[in-house]
Amino acid sequence: MTRRDEKICFACGTCTAGCPVRDVEPSFDPRRIVRRVALDLVDDDLLKTEVWLCADCHTCSERCPQKVPVNEIVMALRNLAVRRGLVHPSYRAQVETIRKAGRVYEVEDWNKKREKSGLPTLRDDGSAARQVLESLGVTLEAGEGEEPK
Amino acid sequence: MRIALFLGCSAPVRAQNYEMSFRKVAARLGVEVVDIQEFGCCGYPVASVDEISSLVLAARNLALAESQGLDVVCLCSACLGTLAAAAERIREDPEIRSQVKKGLEGLGQKLPEKTRVLHAARFLHEVVGLERIRAAVTKPLTGLKIAAHYGCHYLKPAHLFGKVEDPESPATLDALIEAAGAAPLDYAGRLGCCGGGVLGTSEPTALAVTRKRLGAAHSAGADAMVVVCPFCSVMLEGNQKKVEKQAAETYDLPILFLSQLLGLAMGIDPDELGFKLNRIKATKILERFSS
């Protein structure tokens, strides 16, 4: 598969027009995000707030006439934000729980309720998730950047 | 027919009615559900933080299913998207493939090559088939107006799912609703996002998106909305009261999981389908259709 990128964006705005977040939040603009990447204008403001407002619905990428993977660009920016110490606190919390319990929730705490619902009990000690995150050196410590508000 | 049921994080905790009803409906349709105890997080939340780690977590789940020769059926649409995307990346990107292979070796797992990933609804539609479902319906939900909420990851990116349906004009959920004897509604914004993706980062934004979905289904005269993702349910049902309060509107709109609707049409006891766990009570629907 040839992976296409931001450089072929001709700024038509189809992404922004179809964005469900933009629909309710006028400050969010996927076209502007793509342009800023193309023009090398990525700064900490973009990484701290705007990239974390994407709902990851894929409407933009799906409708883009140039097949720019807008959604993948946003994900790459989030990864970059993390490396600069700008991870959003809600993602930090989710990943910390995964590291501890293997999932976003501590599923074993729900086993009583599950038994009552006639569902099989679950076990997860988080060891596999922990090993993956640790072996790949994923760290969510604050880096050089500021903490997001 | 045997499948590995992938529960993910949200469904087994926050949407037990989904899991209960899917298991009952699957059993009624002669599907054997296998639980793989070692399944963990699909990797979805980790994708925002570190792509490779997310892919390794996803691939680990696929490898576990593959070692038992089973295809994976997901209840959650975000799990579906994550696992299916990982399978594609491993297949098509040699660089990713070797990195994921290395990550899996550390976990004592082999690179998965052929395990398929399907959403529970698409599994019912494509693999079990409408004919068998129709044959299992004993109490058709005649006259019940249902707004299907497809959500995002059930449809997109379309290439992950073999382009079986056009994400701008999907039909599988409507067909399953029809198979239950109910009437699928065409309504504004039926393809819209639930807002769940930004709940953690901007709750007001998320709820504003949710309000659009609820308002449209309510105005169209829906008796209920049908969802196929636990997180869509968190937004449309779990946050419905909050949205009503903020918007000074009343929807009182039951949100049912597709498998609850199908189970009801198959004459399965609503208690076994987890209707007691629905936060917006489907009392009127149960009065009409369960006996």
Q: Major sheet of chain B, described briefly?
A: 4 strands, parallel
Structural class of the helix and strand makeup of chain B?
alpha/beta
Which range does the strand content of chain A fall in? under 5%
Q: What is the helix tally of chain B?
A: 13
Task: Give the helix level of chain B as a range of percent.
Answer: 40-55%
Number of strands of chain B: 8
Helix/strand structural class of chain A: mainly alpha
The 3D shape of chain B can be described as: globular
The number of E-state strands of chain A comes to 0
* CATH H-level superfamily title of the largest domain in chain A: Alpha-helical ferredoxin
The helix content of chain A, as a percent range, equals 40-55%
- Mean pLDDT across every amino acid position of chain A: 89
Order of helices and strands of chain A: HHHHHHHH
Uncertain runs of chain B: none
| Element-level helix/strand string of chain B | EHHEHHEHHEHEHEHEHHEHH
Question: What is the rounded distance between the termini of chain B?
Answer: 31 Å
